[in-house]
Amino acid sequence: MKQYHELCEYILKNGANRQDRTGVGTIGVFGYQMRFDLSMGFPLLTTKKTPFRLIVSELLWFLKGDTNIQTLVRENNNIWNEWAFDNWVNSNDYTGPNMENFGIRATKDEEFRKLYEEEMETFITRIKSDNDFAKKYGELGPVYGRQWRDWKRQDGESIDQIAQVIHSIKHHPHSRRHIVTAWNPAEVEHMALPPCHSFMQFYVQDQKLSCQLYQRSADVFLGVPFNIASYALLVHLIAKETNLEVGEFVHTFGDAHIYLNHLPQVEILLSRTPKSLPTIEIPEKSIFTLETSDILLKGYESHPRIQAEIAV
Question: Is 8 a catalytic residue?
Answer without folding.
Answer: no
